[in-house]
Amino acid sequence: MNNIEKKLLEKIADLHSIPSGAFNLRKNGQAVERQSTKDIDIVPKKNKSGIDIIVHPNVKNKSIHIPVIITVGGLNDLVYNDFYIGENCDVVIVAGCGIHNKTCNTSSHNGIHSFHIGKNSKVKYIERHIGEGEGSGGKILNPVTRIYQKENSVMELETSQLSGVTLSLRKTYAKLEDKAKLIIHENILTTENQTAKTQFKVDLIGEHSSVEVVSHSVAKDNSYQEFKSDLIGKNECFGHVECDGILLDKARIISIPKIDAIDNNASLVHEAAIGKIAGDELIKLMTLGLTQKEAEDYIIQGFLVN
Amino acid sequence: MLEIKKLSYSVKENNDILKDINLKFEDEKIYVITGPNGSGKSTLVKIIMGILKQTSGEIFFDNEDLTALTIDERARKGISYAFQQPVTFKGIKVRELLDLASGEKNKLNNHCDFLSTVGLCAKDYLDRPIDDKLSGGELKRIELAMAIARNAKLNIFDEPEAGIDLWSFDNLIKIFSSLKNATNIIVSHQKKILEIADEIILLKNGEILAQGKLNDIAPMLENDKCGRLRGENE
Asked: What confidence category does residue A69 fall into, taking pLDDT thresholds of 50, 70 and 90?
């Protein structure tokens, strides 16, 4: 691996070297290295590009890394990754994609992920997306995540796109059975003429199932972001969507909520607030000695990282 | 020392929010600015911090003219400001603002010192975001903890007693006593706070009506009804 590749890996997966647990490293449209463990099988798909990740029942405190890096221009990568998490598991999955494109040809990665989470299992899924490279070619990321949660399972999805991606469409669908809980934290920063769109749809079919979506967006320059959410309560359930956006320069953020309590015991809430950084926040930090620019950066950093 | 010379402030709708204010604040003393609502108390301290800009007049801090300095430049000169209504953020934690306030990454025992002085346990609060999930009283105490962490030459407190919840005023008084090495300017109506002042400045309709000790000022407050002196239970 060269330095650019190493740095990309570090940024998207905190990896400084090959991880000790189960992993699959994909580079420029090809799987380059893979490792299963006694608890976790990573199996390449036979009929299409991608892998099946099978976590045996009762596996706890294990991690799985499946980073993707693209360092060439003109590549359109499509991959299907399916996770089958057994019952009573507790695992962390670190994914994400970094594109370093120094050419004038657009590269894109389309990662289609599905999660089948067994009863009483807990999954933390961390997905980071970045684009870099001085080439004029686009860096496009279109992740699709489908989540199917069995009874009493918990899925925590942390997704971030903090720089350099010229265009993204992030689609997430989830179906929650009884007492299943889904927590989504999304942090997105767009600059220049970038566009980032997010679409969430969650079917709360189980009794006492719950979903919590917190989306923090910062749009600078002429960038554009769109957030669509669609919660459907088909049982006694709870859903909360919070979309907060900070606008700078001539950027735009649109939030489009839909909540549908089909069962009248469903409790669904959508909150959205979009605007520039509040003046009193800047003033407070300036009274602590930060310049206006430092205060702005500090507020954005806290908003996107914490 | 802070000196205010011929300071006035007006806006389109109101020409006389502050009129020709002349004041001297000496080192290591406690000054309480009091007066009825709308008398210009908060406006005056906001102008000292640079949050508002005076229409005319000058402010000198340690003989340096502050007039052209921004808020952050004044902060770096050693002026601290505790808000009447503490500001909330999304994603910034108590620990981070205390570190910003003190200008260094603090160890746990320092954080404990800052927070225990305002009756909060560092363990419970350091990693909490400064957002609207904290009560008004908690936010106010954290605001005071930041003032302590600042260790500034000049502390400004805008109505520190407002929303201080069940935590007693005696503790608040102790904080001001602990900041003895600094000059403290406190905007307040609270009798116990007025009692610890080296000097009280009574404002009315944007003008200084009187200056002096509580004994001199209190009758004016009660007789004139210009700045109701509030008891502990109010």
From this structure: very high
With beta carbons under 8 A apart, name residues in chain A contacting B97.
Answer: 288
Domain-located, residue B6: yes
Task: Assess if residue B81 is contained within a domain.
Answer: yes
- Contact between B193 and B229 (Cβ < 8 Å): no
CB-CB under 8 Å, B100 with A288: yes
In a domain, B234, yes or no: no
pLDDT of B229 over the 90 cut: no
Contacts of B128 in chain A (CB under 8 A): none
- pLDDT value at position B200? 96
ipTM of the complex: 0.93
Residue A187, pLDDT score: 96
- SS3 for B43? helix
Beta strands across the sheet bearing B2-11:
B14-25, B2-11, B56-61, B64-65
Domain count, chain B: 1
Which CATH number is B118's domain given?
3.40.50.300
**pLDDT at position A59:** 97
Least confident of A11-20, A199-208, A242-251: A11-20
Q: What is the pLDDT of residues A212-237, one digit of tens each?
A: 999 999 999 999 999 999 999 999 99
- From B75's Cα to the closest Cα of chain A, the distance in A is 5
Closest Cβ opposite residue B83 in set A284, A295, A303: A284
Give the integer Cα–Cα distance in Å for A151 and A97.
31
As a whole number, mean pLDDT of residues B112-133 equals: 93
Interface residue A286 vs chain B (CB under 8 A): yes
The Cα A263–Cα A235 span in angstroms is 5
Residues of A in contact with B156 (CB under 8 A): none
Residues B161 and A1: their CA atoms lie apart, in Å, by 61
CB pairs under 8 A between A and B: 63
Mean pLDDT, to the nearest integer, of B57-66? 96
Report if residue B70 sits inside a domain. Answer: yes
- C-beta atoms of B87 and A284 within 8 A: yes
Q: What residues of chain B, 152 to 211, have a C-beta less than 8 Å from chain A?
A: none
Nearest to A302 among B92, B103, B150 (CB): B92
Q: Do A289 and B103 touch (CB under 8 A)?
A: yes
Is the pLDDT at A19 greater than 70? The verdict is: yes
- The backbone region for B175, taken as left when phi is positive above 0, alpha when psi lies in -120 to 50, beta otherwise, is alpha
pLDDT band of B230, cuts 50, 70, 90: low
Q: What is the pLDDT of residue B47?
A: 97
The backbone torsions φ and ψ at residue A118, rounded to the nearest 5 degrees and listed phi first, read -75, 170
Q: What domain range is B95 assigned to?
A: 2-224
State the Cα–Cα distance between residues B108 and B74, nearest whole angstrom: 28
What pLDDT, on the 0 to 100 scale, is given for residue B224?
Answer: 46
The encoded tokens of residue A273 equal: 């607030």
In Å, how far is B101's CA from the nearest CA of chain A? 5
